[in-house]
Write a structure and sequence with these properties.
With 184 residues, the chain is mostly helical. The protein is 75% helix and 0% strand.
Length: 184
């Protein structure tokens, strides 16, 4: 977003607004999928304590292990680079609409295991996870873009940049263990 903003000479306000639009599309698709997964968790939880006490935490931990394995299998560093020339001088809508569509079709699948667990608590669990997810995601995206605009890209976030799957995997495993031992 920062690169597009610089290429298009957008103001800070325009850049942050586009970030919110794209983030909104991303969170909308995630919440829609998550709500369906939460419904499955709810249906299963009413018939079995096993789902809420064992299966849901195992799903979180298994997802974490999958992310760790994917990170270990990654043999080289890969950076997506945006070619500034490809977006220069286009009308804003020709940049914003495809960006929002792309973000809609790239939901955060890592959070879906939380929806399954939250679904075991019923509708309120799914709503709480949705609200927290949307607020944290949008605030995080806006904050990162804001920091990027201020020049924070000079900081060395090398490990997180090259191992996002590993970090995600470890967080999911810890949450799976936590969910198993701490039942709300």
């Amino acid at each position: 977003m920062v690169v597009i903003s610089r290429a298009e000479k957008w103001s800070w306000a325009e850049t942050l607004w586009v970030t919110v639009l794209a983030g909104g599309a991303h969170t909308l698709s995630t919440v829609l999928i998550g709500s369906l997964i939460g419904l499955v968790g709810y249906r299963l939880s009413s018939s079995s304590e096993f789902v809420t006490g064992v299966a849901a935490p195992l799903i979180l931990a298994a997802l974490g292990i999958i992310y760790l394995i994917r990170d270990l299998r990654k043999s080289h560093h890969h950076h997506d680079r945006l070619h500034i020339e490809s977006v220069a001088k286009k009308p804003k809508r020709l940049i914003i609409v495809p960006l929002c569509i792309e973000m809609f079709f790239s939901p955060c699948l890592e959070i879906e295991a939380f929806y399954f667990t939250a679904g075991t608590q019923g509708f309120i669990g799914v709503v709480v996870v949705s609200i927290i997810y949307v607020v944290v995601t949008l605030c995080g995206m806006v904050a990162l873009v804001h920091l990027g605009l201020k020049g924070v890209e000079k900081l060395k976030w090398h490990y997180l940049e090259h191992h996002p799957r590993q970090v995600t995997g470890l967080v999911l495993i810890v949450l799976g263990i936590f969910t198993y031992f701490v039942r709300i």
